[in-house]
Specification:
Layout (H helix, E strand, L loop, with lengths): L16 H18 L12 H12 L1 H16 L6 H22 L5 H10 L1 H23 L1 H9 L14 H22 L2 H27 L6 H4 L14 H8 L1 H4 L7 H4 L7 H30 L13 H9 L1 H35 L6 H4 L10 H16 L5 H31 L16 H20 L3 H4 L7 H4 L1 H19 L25
Length: 531
């Protein structure tokens, strides 16, 4: 009797793993076609890749090491409470984004979501604000090299010895430009290479962050009750007392916890994005909150002198080197360098997809050029180059005008919060009109949708106002006082929004529409049956 049971199931058949993958990919492409676009970008990203994109944009090590000093300077150690406050507010926004990511898994998520919720005009303005802010953010993150590398070794101070008036600013431009050029090349060569480098960097960042928490915990010298109630006596000269000081210090947390939407902006290059993107958004935000909160808390509990002046000038770099010693401290600072690098990669990747999405709708000048996808790399190469060049140009402003640059970078964060608001507010209107329907069988807030959406809108409006408030210590901290710096948020955002929208209204609006080469192919309807 033969023991041959015959051939096993074909792995490439419809029930095999390869067949299932093809079926899922076809389903993803069909969902994109329903939005009016044909699939052009290569679907290569898995669960961890999308999670890594979101968490690397937030980049806990970059943000905490870059802004810790600011929070302590204006709110004392008790500024830590702004971290959970910002998390709760941003969680409301993220939950709304999860519903949108499940229903509209498309590149340039903020632009497309604003367009779907509020119409083409709101969509264009939201996309324009987000794109402008992303290019400035790219430059701001690249500047973080200057805060970290010279702390590791003086060799990285290539311009002068650091004591000159513009030595630090010029060196920051040099280091930042090299990083942006590297990021531009990687992003241009395809999403798979970018994702591999980004995921590897995020893995290193997460391991380093957990290790840093453990090392700091081993050096604790005081309890949390001491840290979380120490205000340095700040706020006595303010109308709102310490609450006013706390609102200023909260900017250190608000400047970090955003960009989680990047996980969904790569939707056209991800497998099963309608399910994976919402998970990636929440995981990135929650992981960032837990890890970042513990790093900040244990750093304040471990530093030898809680009243040390360096806490409000040098920041977290001082705590690491002073507490852990130069050798271990420098190892962690190198991990911060890795975190900064992958953060720049993620910021630029998000900006590229946003520019591509707007250009594909012919909503930018030279749209057909900007939306062209490289047949070899399956990546929009021109947006990579354009964003990289603009990022370097913005950096150059920092050489002789660091005060103006700091104003612009602060304003960029406000513009991102406003772009988020241009999604959540129209979404709330849709809910109130009974027109919003989550994707069937995918992520849904259910009966919690309305209260969460209301909270997201209130939070976005309140934090945007707090970020834009004309504080001298934020917008005109040094040098002569100028009204245009103090009110820079309102002036700059007004110019960008009004000027950009005027161009759109009078010029680009009349040309808008999905470009023919990017439009989904509509199959002819079957002929009617003869009678």
């Amino acid at each position: 009797m033969s023991t041959d049971a015959g051939p096993g199931p074909d792995p490439t058949g419809p029930t095999g793993p390869a067949g299932a993958a093809r079926t899922q990919s076809q389903h993803d492409d069909d969902a994109l076609g329903e939005l009016g676009y044909k699939p052009e970008l290569r679907r290569t990203l898995g669960n961890f890749h999308t999670f890594a994109a979101g968490i690397s944009y937030i980049s806990i090590l970059t943000g905490t090491f870059q802004l810790f000093y600011f929070g302590v300077a204006f709110g004392g150690p008790a500024y830590w409470w702004s971290w959970p406050m910002v998390f709760v507010g941003q969680l409301m926004v993220a939950l709304c984004f999860c519903e949108l990511a499940a229903r509209f898994p498309v590149a340039g998520s903020i632009y497309n979501w604003a367009k779907k919720m509020g119409g083409p005009h709101v969509g264009w303005l939201g996309g324009w604000m987000m794109m402008t802010a992303t290019m400035v953010t790219l430059s701001a993150v690249a500047l973080a090299y200057q805060i970290t590398l010279p702390q590791i070794d003086d060799w990285f101070q290539f311009v002068g010895d650091g004591s000159g008036e513009n030595d630090a600013a010029a060196n920051a431009v040099l280091l930042g430009s090299v990083l942006i050029l590297f990021s531009t090349a990687i992003n241009a060569f395809g999403v798979k290479l970018m994702a591999r480098i980004n995921s590897s960097g995020v893995f290193i960042e997460l391991i380093a962050a957990v290790a840093l928490i453990i090392f700091l915990a081993a050096h604790i010298t005081r309890g949390p009750s001491t840290v979380l109630t120490d205000t340095y006596g700040l706020g006595g000269d303010r109308t709102l007392g310490y609450f006013g000081a706390f609102l200023t210090a909260s900017l250190a947390s608000a400047y970090v916890m955003y960009g989680f939407d990047t996980a969904s902006s790569l939707g056209e290059e991800s497998h099963d994005p309608s399910r994976n993107a919402p998970r990636a958004i929440l995981r990135a935000l929650v992981a960032s909150f837990i890890i970042g909160g513990l790093i900040l808390l244990f750093a304040l509990m471990a530093v030898k002198d809680l009243a040390a002046e360096e806490l409000s000038t040098v920041g977290l770099q001082f705590v690491v080197l002073d507490t852990l010693g130069s050798t271990i401290g420098e190892i962690f600072l190198w991990c911060v360098v890795v975190a900064i690098s992958v953060c720049v990669l993620a910021v630029q990747a998000a900006g590229i997809r946003l520019m591509f999405a707007m250009a594909r709708d012919n909503n930018l000048p030279a749209g057909s050029v900007l939306a062209k996808v490289s047949p070899r790399f399956k990546t929009p190469v021109v947006p990579s180059v354009v964003i990289g060049v603009i990022g370097v140009v913005i950096l150059v402003i920092n050489i002789n005008q660091p005060q103006i640059f700091s104003v612009i970078t602060s304003i960029a964060v406000i513009m991102i919060y406003l772009a988020y608001l241009m999604v959540t507010l129209p979404m709330l209107v849709q809910r109130l009109r009974g027109k919003w329907q989550p994707a069937e069988g995918k992520f849904s807030l259910g009966r919690w949708g309305l209260p969460v959406n209301i909270a997201a809108v209130l939070w976005g409006a309140a934090m945007s106002l707090n970020l834009a408030w004309p504080r001298a210590e934020v917008y005109n901290a040094t040098g002569a006082q100028h009204w245009y710096l103090r009110w820079g948020a309102f002036v700059f955002i007004g110019v960008v929004a009004v000027g950009g929208f005027a161009y759109y209204w009078f010029v680009q609006r009349h040309r808008t529409g999905v470009l023919e080469e990017h439009r989904a192919v509509v199959t002819d309807e079957p002929p009617a049956a003869s009678r």
